[in-house]
Amino acid sequence: MRLYIKYMISLRCKMLVKEELERLEIPFGFIDQGVVELLEEISLNQRSQLKKNLLRFGLKCHEDKKSILIEKIKNTILEMIQYADGSPKMNYSEYISEKLNYDYTYLANIFSEVKGITIQQYIILNKIERVKEFLLHDELNLTEISYRLHYSSVAHLSGQFKKVTGLSPSFYKEQKQKREETKVMMEAI
Question: What pLDDT shows up at residue 87?
């Protein structure tokens, strides 16, 4: 039996879920991004207590099939973006469809209906968040970022970044450096 948990995307969240499962003596197999494999059926009381305990940490158990499918789509997209390495891959629609074993049109329609945005818009928003992470941590230059995240060019990345954030990537990075300089000055005072 699988249990689907909303917002469980970090290692810290997985550890919290693991601790709660152990505390409630619920046997489990694996814990992955957004999903826990339970080794046996759990009682309504255990389910209720787990839901209550996880909610304290901002985690929520999914109940209906649409929510579960949406969460699977979101987790697949986050996984695609988080672990993108720049090597040639199939396009996003093929990847999502193949990974979840559903027709992409069906997935896209459900996603749009529930979330109010398209899968493509969701992908763009999450890619821009990943670009921000790279810029803030000075891990890669724009050329490397555009390659890693499968942009056709630096200009394409920059255009999308500006459209979403209202700032160019270089201005965004400058603002980060100014904030750091201000912070250092304030600490010196």
Answer: 59
The pLDDT of residue 128 is above 70:
yes
Domains of the chain in start order, with CATH, are 2-63 (3.30.70), 67-176 (1.10.10.60)
- What burial letters (b/e) apply to 36-58, b meaning 16+ CB within 10 Å? bebeeebeeeebebbeebbeeee
Q: How confident is the model over 70-86, as a mean pLDDT?
A: 84
- Say if strands 35-38 and 28-32 run parallel, antiparallel, or are unpaired: antiparallel
Contact in structure between 69 and 107 (CB atoms under 8 Å): yes
The Cα 14–Cα 33 span in angstroms is 8
Kindly state the percentage of the chain with pLDDT values over 90: 37
Cα separation of the two ends of the chain: 57
Q: What are phi and psi of 155, to 5 degrees?
A: -60, -40
Check if the beta carbon of residue 172 is closer than 8 Å to that of residue 133. no
Residue 73 CA to residue 111 CA, distance in Å, equals 8
Nearest to 5 by CA among 52, 48, 59, 57: 59
**54, 17 contact by CB (below 8 A):** yes
